Amino acid sequence: MPKALVVSDEVDERLWTDAVRSHSVDLVIGAGDLPYDYLAFLASALDVPCVFVPGNHDPDLSGYTRYGGLSMKDGFPTVWPGPAGGINADGRLVDVAGLRFAGLGGSIRYNDGPNQWTQRQQARRARGLVRRARFRRWRDGRGVDVLLTHSPPLDLGDRADPPHRGFACLHRTIEVLRPKWLLHGHIHPHGELVPDRVVGSTRIRNVVGHRIMEF
């Protein structure tokens, strides 16, 4: 049963020290809007893989390809701005520590910043992710364990103000993929207790801050 340190949006300074080594986990999961140096430190200190999706305040990671230790963009070697050793699951299916992740990063578009999408754009990205997940399931019989997003589904833990509205397409994505978990950030509880939400067989959890989770 894999155990993970799940983080999003708010840096916990207590974890950005050697004290983090007291946690025995199999991987680090990031749901966006955290310094990439923070994610890289957590993964390095714990000596575990890190899978993440970018948030709306994170640098744009589109267009980069990685082969071994070399990063490329537009056909030229370059420095990848993401966390060292991190696995970007945005728009992809990735298998890490025995879990299959499907990732959709970013938030609703509210200005010209990176990693922001209109409802229509994110719906198109979600359809591509579903196609890839179906093909992988046909090939190896495995479904998705964790749908990792930055923003929540529309009307399921989001807010009424425009920058914090959720994505409508995630309802259909949950329905088709039937992941055991949807983990998201973006919505800061500000001390409020945020209960999990359940849709079908999927449990939706706001992971702003940090949590230790067993899957």
UniProtKB/TrEMBL annotation:
Organism: Amycolatopsis bullii
SUPFAM superfamilies the record matches: Metallo-dependent phosphatases
Protein name, entry field: Metallophosphoesterase
Domain Calcineurin-like phosphoesterase, chain residue ranges per copy: 14-189
Pfam family, one: Metallophos
Phylogenetic placement of the source organism: Bacteria, Bacillati, Actinomycetota, Actinomycetes, Pseudonocardiales
